[in-house]
């Protein structure tokens, strides 16, 4: 499980260091692709298989579902972190997410997300206010 928020720097070669707490789960390999809300989604290889299985359930006859699956698969990039825990984020994914030098790495349960730090801060500020003022707990049984 990936948890937390970490500030990192994207180097001139497009590499980012993964947080040390995430490295064991990703050391055997990962897949990164476009994520919702203009982030880069990073999945351990084992979790990626579940993502692909879910995409296979989308209807190829529905244009939006077909495009959704195509974009996730077309942008997918396999990577193995180096000994220092760095991964190279391909230019097409950096462009999609607006990644520049300041990058925020976010744990999101079964995946990691890479965000442009300013974009993450704006998203986080909106989302935490919505969270604080929600009048429903989505039947999670936690409140």
Q: Can you tell me about this structure?
A:
By secondary structure, the protein is of the alpha+beta class. The chain has one domain (5-133): Chemotaxis protein chec (3-Layer(aba) Sandwich), CATH 3.40.1550. Helix content is 38%, strand content 27%. It contains five helices and eight strands, in the order ββαββααββαββα. The strands form two sheets. The chain has a six-stranded antiparallel β-sheet with strand order 1-7-8-4-3-5. It is globular. The two termini are 22 Å apart. The model has no long low-confidence stretch (mean pLDDT 94).
The rough form would be described as globular
Strand arrangement within the widest β-sheet reads 1-7-8-4-3-5
CATH class, named Alpha Beta
The H-and-E topology, N to C, reads as: EEHEEHHEEHEEH
CATH architecture: 3-Layer(aba) Sandwich
- Residue fraction in strands: 25-35%
- Major beta sheet summary: 6 strands, antiparallel
Q: Which structural class best describes the helix and strand composition?
A: alpha+beta
Q: Which value, in Å, is the CA radius of gyration?
A: 16 Å
Count of DSSP helices?
5
Mean pLDDT: 94
The CATH superfamily name is Transcriptional regulator MraZ domain
Distance between the termini: 22 Å
Which residues sit in consecutive blocks of at least 5 with pLDDT less than 50? none
Helix content: 25-40%
Number of structural domains: 1
Q: Strand tally, please? A: 8
CATH fold name, please?
A: Chemotaxis protein chec
